[in-house]
Amino acid sequence: MIPVALPSWEEINIRYERHEDPSTLTDSDRVLLEEAKSIAEKAYAPYSRFKVGAAIRLSGISETFSGNNQENVAYPSGLCAERVALFHAKAHHPDAAVEAIAIYAIPEYFSLERPITPCGACRQALLEYEHTSETPCRVVMGSSVGTVCIFPAVKDLLPLSFFESRLGHE
User: Fold this and answer.
1) What is the pTM of this model?
2) Which residues are marked as active site?
3) What are 89-139's pLDDT values in tens digits?
4) Vertex 97: Cα angle to 92 and 99 (nearest 5)
5) What would be the CATH architecture of the domain defined by 27-156?
6) 93-97 contacts, C-beta under 8 A, 24 or more apart
């Protein structure tokens, strides 16, 4: 018999902050999370009854930008809170780096065991701006559970992300 080499396994470890009480957050993160909660309450989610809000802080800009999920009976026609807030912010300040995004979820028919994370499409959209600005974007995630998780950068939520700066170029 010829010996066959077995594949080796590797691990990806992801570090994040966990706060059991939102009062332990920095003032800027707590305010951003409160804004995400406030806008989540106004989300248009008649089908899922799962309201999500997002608030974004840009570098060097005093105002924050927020958005919430917008559903549609033709499900693919809706949009997540994170991308609504992100595109709103970048439409007004295309050159400003995204410093932080706070996300807050309010489910109507079930309870959460932990804060929700952005979906894959939102992670990829956030990563695009994080990469092009060369500035990490803090991701602050909270919910009615009370626990808050903070990732220092979007790339930490998407460790095997797709980004090729040479795509379409020689």
Assistant:
1) 0.91
2) 82
3) 999 999 999 999 999 999 999 989 899 999 999 999 999 999 999 999 999
4) 110
5) 3-Layer(aba) Sandwich (3.40)
6) 93/58, 93/61, 96/58, 96/59, 96/60, 96/61, 97/58, 97/59, 97/129, 97/133, 97/134, 97/135, 97/137
